[in-house]
Design goal:
25 strands, binds adenosine-5'-triphosphate, binds magnesium ion
Length: 568
């Protein structure tokens, strides 16, 4: 793995063995003059997550690099779990990530062809109808150390198999009563080759083919041939499919069809993150998160709503490359790429999350003025904006301490600080409520320090953000943190549950934040750096009257580190 210290967030070219393999195949003309063809084959049974982003970047990215094409193919062989909602969200997310497909395909488009091929294998004596129950098939399968046992139906005649299979198709038999199996080798050391099931009976309505079929091909009988039909040259998938590759090849060889080549790479695993669609669905169904696009979810829609950018996700994927061994990547690495991207691109704004009133006693009552503030110090072309300043302001509660601890350079009685792009102010006195909490800080300002510098060259150690009380807009702020408390969420004691490791503080809602007025025009998905606070993005739940901002990521907080070090 490479050290993530790029100059910018543009995807970099990290060597990866898939690229090397494709380059070699192009050089040796393994597929003649045919262009490289890849596919991304999601099962439409959930929303795409950051692990899929890795696969998408490899499938689309590598084809692109070599002048090839990529299909988006829905592996929709399982009618029971698949929904149109997923089909739509997947297309949206692939496009959002920055890719477009050559063809939009569905494994269900090939049901007719797959059926023909099943007949062809029966005729060749390479497939048979088995009447054993699912349990019995499992019992006959053997183990890694013991060979399996032949089914008593294994040696049915071709005629009988043809007759039974066509009757399976025409709906004569109930679910689960019979299956079609490949006749390969019940003693194979590879369990996938012990006469795998090709077709099962399922009287279920399919999201695309409706009730046209009551037998459905197994994923393993559909995947390799779908690749072949689309003339996929490089079929990249994750390592858990390596043991299935000999089966896909057996089908392709037995049928004499286009030899797509499968290559397996490592699954993305991220610390503090679950990347199993089944578990993510459970989080949604059990209402532990608001929806698939809850900003705490590792789904692309969740990351988008959180404020992550496709550029940063692609840069992250490019940096992790692809290997042949599974590992775990630190979530901080993804966050690094996101901060880096937003640091370059996000407009700055001033927002006070925990407001404390500041009154500037020597500033004229009823007066206000505009100060000019840079939109992005990293990007002068982003220009400047005018921010209103007046006698009453808000600052962060934490930016004032009546009794400052050592090395606390922010506002405290008698201490002078800079208000960003505005003036130097000095705290003079405080107002407290009955409980003794500071509710107002009275200050004086130096009119000569307009713009944030004093003509006498006086230095201040701290620059703070602020908003003018009369001009501020109120907003709801949603502070998100990691969804799980453990680097490996699946690390729980016996009898426990991964959800025991959910972070009870993964969402904190602040109702009374005060924001500079320019943010009144922010649109859903607009991203900002709130100065000194973090990166934020407008949530689509926002209304005309109430903006909601999601925290994408905190800035790295050096003060928190100092305090932690000091054991405070
Ligand atoms: P799950 O097991 O959670 O349902 P899946 O792998 O079955 O996930 P698919 O929809 O079949 O999900 O995945 C589509 C493609 O994305 C496959 O090629 C798969 O290998 C790849 N993929 C899925 N998860 C990851 C991951 N964590 N890292 C890299 N690639 C992944
Ligand atoms: Mg899958």
């Amino acid at each position: 793995m490479t050290n993530p210290t790029p100059e910018s967030s543009e995807p970099r070219t990290v060597s990866n063995f898939l690229r090397d393999q494709i380059a070699e195949d192009v050089r040796t003309k393994k597929y003649g003059d045919a262009a490289i063809q890849t596919r991304f084959p999601p099962e439409p049974n959930g929303y795409l997550h950051i692990g899929h982003a890795k696969a998408i970047c490899l499938d689309f990215g590598l084809a692109d690099e070599f002048g090839g094409k990529t299909n988006l193919r829905f592996d929709d062989t399982n009618p029971e779990k698949e929904e149109t909602e997923y089909v739509e969200s997947i297309q949206k997310d692939v496009r959002w990530l920055g890719f477009d497909w050559e063809k939009l395909c569905y494994a269900s488009d090939y049901f007719g062809q797959l059926y023909e091929w099943a007949i062809q294998l029966i005729r060749a004596g390479k497939a048979y109808v088995d009447d054993l129950s699912a349990d019995e098939i499992r019992q006959h399968r053997g183990t890694l150390t013991e060979p399996g046992k032949d089914s008593p139906f294994r040696n049915r005649s071709v005629e009988e198999n043809l007759d039974l299979f066509t009757r399976m198709k025409s709906g004569e038999f109930p679910d689960g009563s019979r299956v079609l199996r490949a006749k390969i080798d019940m003693a194979s050391p590879n369990l996938n080759l012990r006469d795998p099931v090709m077709y099962r009976i399922l009287h279920a309505t399919h999201h695309r083919t409706g009730d046209a079929w009551c037998i459905y091909p197994m994923y393993d009988f559909a995947h390799g041939q779908s690749d072949s039909i689309e003339r996929v040259t490089h079929s990249m998938c994750t390592l858990e499919f390596a043991d299935h590759q000999p089966l896909y090849r057996w089908f392709i060889d037995s049928l004499g069809i286009f030899p797509s080549q499968q290559i397996e790479f490592d699954r993305l695993n991220l610390t503090y993150t679950l990347l199993s669609k089944r578990k993510l669905l459970q989080l949604v169904n059990e209402k532990r998160v608001s929806a698939w696009d809850d900003p705490r979810m590792p789904t692309l829609s969740g990351l988008r709503r959180r404020g992550f950018t496709p550029e940063a996700i692609r840069a992250f994927c490019a940096s992790i490359g692809a290997t042949r061994t599974n590992g775990i990547t630190d979530i901080e690495m993804l966050e690094y790429f996101q901060r880096d991207d937003l640091n370059h691109r996000a407009r700055r704004a001033m927002a006070v999350l925990h407001p404390l009133k500041v009154v500037i006693d020597n500033y004229p009552t009823g007066q206000s003025e505009f100060v000019e503030v840079q939109n992005n110090p990293e990007d002068p072309s982003a220009g400047t904006r005018q921010v209103p300043f007046s006698r009453e302001l808000y600052i962060e509660h934490d930016d004032f301490r009546e009794v400052p601890p050592p090395k606390y350079y922010r506002l405290s009685p008698g201490k002078e600080v800079r208000l960003r792009s505005a003036y130097f102010i000095t705290a003079q006195s405080v107002v407290k409520d009955a409980a003794g909490n500071v509710t107002e800080v009275h200050c004086t300002y130096d009119p000569a320090s307009r713009g944030g510098n004093s003509p006498d060259g006086r230095k201040v150690k701290s620059t703070m953000h602020w908003v003018s009380a009369a001009h501020a807009i109120s907003a709801e702020i949603r502070l998100y943190d990691k969804l799980f408390t453990k680097p490996d969420p699946s690390d729980f004691p016996e009898g426990g549950d991964v959800f025991d490791n959910l972070n009870p503080n993964s969402l904190e809602i602040l109702a009374g934040a005060k924001l500079e007025p320019s943010l009144a025009n922010a649109k859903p998905e607009d991203r900002y750096q709130f100065e000194r606070v973090g990166y934020f993005c407008v949530d689509p739940d926002s209304s005309e009257t109430m903006k909601i901002f999601n925290r994408t990521l905190a800035l790295k907080d050096s003060w928190a580190k100092i305090e932690k070090k000091a054991g405070a």
